[in-house]
Structure formats: structure tokens, C-alpha cells
Amino acid sequence: IPSVSNIVPESCLLIVVGLLVGGLIKGVGEKPPILKSDIFFLFLLPPIILDAGYFLPLRQFTENLGTILIFAVVGTLWNAFFLGGLMYAVCQLGGPGLNHIGLLANLLFGSIISAVDPVAVLAVFEEIHINELLHILVFGESLLNDAVTVVLYHLFEEFATFEQVTILDIVLGFFSFFVVSLGGVFVGVIYGVITAFTSRFTSHIRVIEPLFVFLYSYMAYLSAELFHLSGIMALIASGVVMRPYVEANISHKSHTTIKYFLKMWSSVSETLIFIFLGVSTVAGHHYWNWTFVISTLLFCLIARVLGVLVLTWFINKFRIVKLTPKDQFIIAYGGLRGAIAFSLCYLLDYKHFGMRDMFLTAIITVIFFTVFVQGMTIRPLVDLLAVKKKQETKRSINEEIHTQFLDHLLTGIEDICGHYGHHHWKDKLNRFNKKYVKKCLIAGERSKEPQLIAFYHKMEMKQAIELVESGGIGKIPSAVSTVSIQNINPKTLPVERILPALSKDKEEEIRKILRNNLQKTRQRLRSYNRHTLVADPYEEAWNQMLLRRQKARQLEQKMNNYLTVPAHKLDSPTMCRARIGSDPLAYEPKADSENLPIITIDPASPQSPESVDLANEEPKGCGGLPPSPEEDEEGLVMRVKEPSSPGTDDVFTPGTNNSPSNQRMLRCLSDPGPRPEPEEGEPFIPKGQ
After folding, report:
1. Which residue among 98, 259, 417, 491 is least crowded, i.e. fewest CB within 10 A of its CB?
2. Is residue 646 part of a domain?
3. What is the mean pLDDT of the chain?
């Protein structure tokens, strides 16, 4: 009935079914079964957590890990102690029926009821299709707060048996949190590596590949629970660690089997959990106390709202993408409770906790309120507040390539700035993974880059074999090279045959290979800092050359206003060399030639016949006086050009071509003013004495 399922979540309908089944069993005189804690924690919960950990969106999870940890650790501690302290005050003021409940019992009750339940969150949030950020924040909090819940639960349960609690016990309880959480992660990582290593050697027995994934994951959960560590953290860690290596080793059919078997297994477990919740509500022993139950429900809501508001105000000081008030409302409203709290309360011993039935009644009330009221109203509220929904379509390869490009760009920027952000550490981890871990955990050529070429050859060979077996070559797709086709089947073209397009699974495999084989940045690790940059030794010389060039341009502009005489045509470098070689005495420097105008000539080599240029030539008589007869008689003195020093303006020296700028400069240098006409027999340059 779509009209009902669009309004009421599936979890609510399953609880209603459980209530009806339990009432029917009780109506015929039988005792309804109760959801025992051993069955829940050993058989029903692990498939749901493994499914969540194996297919965890790792990118969103790691980018928001700090926010998730603050909500999961600090938020859960705040809820537990706030709720436990207020419930202790209510018990002291609530009359004779509640006075006997002590502080430790109330703190234990607060630790049980404070944790957000991953099963309930998954059941509700997957139906409303909330955006990835809010989904991973609430769901990640529900996964990681298991460590806090386990520590507080066992801590207060042990303290209840003590005659006196000392400071040492409290300190040891604080350190046990790190042991439980980090120990669970360590156990999960060990089993994940063992699973990946085992999958290297299953190429000849593909049938049992999915079995290893389920077996080692379940072993990780049991090993963690055996030592009172966090089994949920162990399952998540093992799923996250094993997935990239296992999927590179196993066949495509095994991957499909793992995917759909996990989905089916977790769906069956979720269905049984909610049905058993309804049946247990009918079958269990209840003790209703209005004051306790209503206070529990009210303080749960208040603690959740206050915790989210205060923690978000603190978190937004460090986040680039801030959490808006709409996001805060959805996070606070999505704090659903579920079967984990019910099972933990069911585990309590009557000897030390005689009020267990009242606790169970209050917990079932809170579960029903959060699942029914909040779960049914969160979808209309999301639509009303216009909260961003999840994108149903997959990202294109273009988007994935640009996302990878931005990751590499940010990694490079962090390197240049000398800032070690999460992009830096992620790139470092990827390089370590590629250099060492992949070689040990991935079999054959798949551990080497690039996988894309190997996949191309694999598809090319497969399609070529299909063409040979079918006896025809039709429209050859671009993935098949014509050379390989000619080598396999060099016959004439038969009837056209159109090959089928790529399946979705092949397309997804191509996407994954493209995503994993883009160009990696930073082949060498080096950090830069603006305070340690080396100064350029040639910067001063370049600045001086630029200033000289600017002054030369200004001089050109000024001289253009006075130049009317055309420039003398220069002799070619070949003629100049011939004159120098025929009469070298004419070009020797004279003793009294300090104040004479000079032409510097670079004797051009055969390899560079155009390396003669002019410099330091001053027009005669430009000081306002007419040229003297001695100067007219002595003419010009030509000297060999000295090699330029590294700091001189070699770059901007104009060449000897006939460009307009060079002609203007030559016109300036070759206009000495009025002078007598030379006689017909006078040489070009007079000889020295």
C-alpha cells in the first residue's frame, strides 16, 4: 500500500506487526517469545553493522570524522550524565516508589538510553533520502557511540557491585574507554588484513570467496566481544580495511554475491529486530510509573537538543562548511533510540537492579516515541524546511575526475604552505598503501599501476574472442583495436553484427579503475615555507637592466623630435672584417684618444657573422661647439668589444637588423652635425701615425 508506506516508516509498520503477532499468541493462551539479548547481539546485530561498515561512504566519513567523534563521544557522555543526574533528582523527589533508586542505577539507565541506535537511524534515514552530510553525521554518530555506551554500561554495572567506589576506579574507568574503542578498532584492522591476504590465494576456488569475508568479519566481532571490547567498532574497522583489497582479488560474481547477500541479511535482521520489539512489548513484564516514564522522555529530548546546539556552536568555529540551523534541527530530531537500548536493559541482573522492569517500560516508551512520532514526522519536516536531498543519480566520470583534481590541487597547496592538513596525510597514506601494502595484499598484476591498461587489454581480448567464436565482425567498438582483430581473424567481413553495450557492472568497474588510477601528486615529499625561500642572486641585475631599457625608450622618444637626417647605411660585417684584416693599424687605439668618440666592434666569427654593433658613439659638436679640425682629421677610433659581464644588459641590446626602432637609434648615433664635405681622394678612416 504505497499511500501508507509513504507516511509511516517501515520500522513502525514492523513494530505494529510484532504487536499484532504478540497479541495473537497471547490471545490463544501461549507465551510470546521475548527478544533475548544473546540472540540480538550474536546473530541479529552483526549483519546490520557489517553491511554498514563494508559499504561505508569512506570519503564523507573521513572528511567529517572530527565532527562525528565530537557528537559520538562528547554528546553521548553529556546525554548520559545529564539524563542520569536529572533522573536521580526526580527519583529523590518522586515519592516512595522511586526513592530506593540510587545514583549509579540512574547513571546506568542514562548510559543505556542516551545512545543513538544505528538500526533505527538506518531504517528511517534511508527512506527520507537526506543529503550525504546529515546522513553520515547522524549514522556515524550512531556507529561510533557504541564504545562510549559499552564502557559506561560495564563501568556502572561493575560499580553497582562495589561497596565503595574510589578515585582509582574512576581513573581506570576513564582509561578503559580508550582500551575498548582503540582495542576494537585494532582487532578489526587485524582481521581485515587477514581477510585481504587470504583473498590473494582464492583464484582457483572462486565459490568460497564470499565465505571468507563473512567468516573473518564475524570472527572480528566475536573476538572483540570476548574481551569486552567494542564489537561494532571491530566490524566497522574490518569492513573498511578489507574492502579495497578484497574487491581487487575476488571475481565479479563473488563481489555481487557479497553485496546482495549482505543487503538481504541485514534487511532480514532489521525486520526481525523490529518485529521482536513489538512481540516483547506484549510479552514482557512492565512496571508503569508516570513520573519516571514522562521525565525520561522529556529529559531525553531536552538533553539531545541542548547537546546538539552547544556542540554545533563549538564545531562551527573549525568547520569550513558550517552546520546551518536546519541541519542542527535534523541532527537533533534524528536521534532515534532502538533495540540496542532494549537488549542492554534486558541484560541487567535482577539481584542488583530490582527496578529493571520499570527501566524496560521507560525504554520501550522512548523507543516507540522516537520511532513512531519522530520517524513519521521527519519526512514532512524535511520537505517543509527544504533540506537538501540526496542525489539519486551517480556522479559522472567528469565530476569524479575534477574531484580528484581538486584533491591533488589542495594537497599541493598544503605542501607549498607547509600546512599538514588532512589532504596531506591522506596523500601520504595513499602513497604508503600503493608502495607497500598493495604489493602484499593484492595478487598478480592488479597490485601494479596502471590497472586501466590491463583492464583494457582484458576487455579487448574478450571481445575479440567473442567475435571469433561468433564468426563475424560487425561494428567494432572503440575498445577493440583493429590490429588485434586482424591478428585473430584476418578474413573477409561477414554480415554486420552489433555488439551489446557495456553492462552496468562493467561500467562501474571502469569508473572504479579511473577513480583509483588518476595521476598521483607529490612524487617527492618536500614542504616549502615563505620564510625559507632562497633569494634570487640575479634579481638586482635584472631590475637594473629593466631600468636601463626604460631609460633607452625615453631617450628614443625625445630624440625622435629632432631627427630629420636619414641614417647612414652601415657596411656589412663582411666588409668590416675585410678592412680590419687588410689594414689593422687603422683600428689600433691611439694614445690621445680618451676623449674621442669610439665605435666598439666585436670581430664576428664565421659562426655568427652579424655580431657587430655600435656603442658609446657621441656626435661631434653636440656640446654646442663646432668640431675642431684635429677631430675632423683624426676621425673615429674603433676598439674591439670586450666580453660582457653577467650583470650587463645583454638581453635588451638592440640588434643590427633594419627594424624601425634600430633605424631611429642609428639615425641618432650617426648625425654628428655640420661638417665639411670630405675630398674625393680622402680615405674612409685615416691611418694612425
Report:
1. 491
2. no
3. 77
Q: What is the dihedral of CA 208, 214, 216, 221, to 10 degrees?
A: -170
**What is the CATH classification number for the domain harbouring 209?**
1.20.1530.10
Residue 192 shares a structural domain with residue 220: yes
Report, as an integer, the average pLDDT of 293-317.
Answer: 92
Instruction: Take residue 358 and report the three cell numbers written for it.
Output: 520499570
Choose the weakest-confidence range: 521-525, 526-530, 663-667: 521-525
- Provide the number of structural domains found in the chain: 2
**Which residue has 546525554 as its cell numbers?**
79
Q: What is the DSSP letter of 444?
A: G
Helix (H) or strand (E) holding 505: helix 504-516
Instruction: Supply the range of the domain harboring residue 321.
Output: 10-385
Q: Are residues 249 and 372 in the same domain?
A: yes
CA-CA distance, 427 to 596, in Å (whole number)? 69
Q: How many Å apart are CA 63 and CA 319, to the nearest integer?
A: 10
- What's the pLDDT score for residue 620? 43
**Range 221-234 average pLDDT:** 92
Q: Within this chain, do residues 330 and 427 fall inside the same structural domain, yes or no?
A: no
Any idea what DSSP says for residue 347? T
Give the length of the chain: 689
Is residue 424 situated within a structural domain?
yes
β-bridge partners, 637: 598
Contacts of 27 (CB under 8 A, 6+ apart): none
Residue 108 domain-assigned? Answer: yes
359 with 424, same domain?
A: no
pLDDT at 634 over 50: no
Whole-angstrom CA distances from 80 to 29, 112, 279, 293, 352 are 40, 8, 28, 16, 20
Give the residue carrying C-alpha cell 665639411: 676
DSSP reduced 3-state for 389:
strand
Residue 595 neighbours by CB under 8 Å, 6+ apart = none
Specify the DSSP class assigned to residue 635.
-
Indicate the residue among 364, 385, 406 that finishes a domain. 385
Q: E strands within 354-476?
A: none
423/278 same-domain check: no
Round to whole Å and give the CA distance between 613 and 615.
7
pTM, two decimals, is 0.65
